[in-house]
Design brief:
Helix content is 27%, strand content 28%. With 265 residues, it is of the alpha+beta class.
């Protein structure tokens, strides 16, 4: 089995890579219930519902063009295309929430196998700088949304997954994640999800988040997490003049550290 209940993350019901692959090829998306342990969901809910109350935003744009070595940060964007908070967590940094990151890595390994990749693809250094980062998003009550779009990276198709931390029907009334497979109808994915469910879908199909609506002021809105594959930017894409300035900065920093150590001895 790809997952076991004793690790407190995945239950024995988690589908095999082969089943995920078959279901995606046949239907374009697949929902599996009771695959994340109750302990895991409860802990993520406890953490993220409290964390977002602080809204400690470091940037005003939910962006791409991510660089190797970036710090973790929280962003907020409110535009015609999207309105959401998004926490970016990079694997080279300490995790914002350990269980969320460990879960994302485990699911990513199974996703890799479902696509015929090595399970560690995106988790180790490779020349093309392909990797993942953890994204945890909060769509606020009566505001949050994400317009319909498709995802893809070069020649590497994205088998996307989404793991809800809050639930439609309990934490929000209307809106939520949808997918549209080919020319078929729009599917209300969040309506079909339960606590402990996960959805996989071919991200080359249109998907998005309809505006989250809440009738009760105590409702949390939509919070969900997933590991996003991407090609990171490298130092070779930074202009030489800026790299030189960075080199000078680190040279002075090393000298300062040496000076302090010498003073303390």
């Amino acid at each position: 089995m790809p997952g076991h209940s004793e690790n407190k993350l995945l239950t024995p019901n988690f589908p095999t890579p082969e089943k995920i692959n078959r279901d995606i090829l046949e239907h374009g998306f697949a929902i599996y219930h009771d695959v994340i342990t109750k302990e895991c969901i409860s802990e993520m809910r406890r953490f993220w519902c409290n964390e977002f109350k602080w809204q400690n935003v470091k940037g005003k744009v939910v962006r791409g063009d991510l660089r190797i070595g970036e710090p973790n940060y929280l962003t907020y964007t409110d535009s015609k295309f999207w309105c959401l908070y998004r926490q970016f967590d990079f694997l080279w940094n300490p995790p914002t929430h350990d269980i969320t990151t460990r879960l994302g890595i485990e699911v990513h390994k199974i996703r890799n196998q479902a696509q015929g990749f090595d399970s560690e693809y995106g988790l180790t250094y490779v020349p093309d700088r392909y990797g993942i980062y953890m994204s945890t998003s909060w769509y606020q009550p009566n505001q949050g949304h994400l317009e319909s779009h498709i995802d893809g990276h070069k020649d590497t198709p994205i088998l996307q997954y989404m793991l809800p931390i809050t639930q439609k029907g309990n934490d929000f009334d209307g809106g939520g994640l949808f997918v549209k497979i080919g020319e078929g109808p729009k599917i209300d994915v969040d309506e079909l999800m339960k606590s402990g469910s996960i959805v996989f879908f071919d991200a080359r199909n249109h998907h998005g988040v309809d505006k989250i609506t809440c009738s009760d002021p105590m409702m949390k809105g939509r919070i969900a997490t997933f590991a996003i594959p991407t090609f990171f930017r490298g130092q070779d894409e930074v202009p030489a003049s800026l790299r030189k300035a960075q080199d000078i900065y680190y040279w002075f920093k090393r000298k300062l550290i040496y000076f302090h150590k010498a003073s303390d001895s």
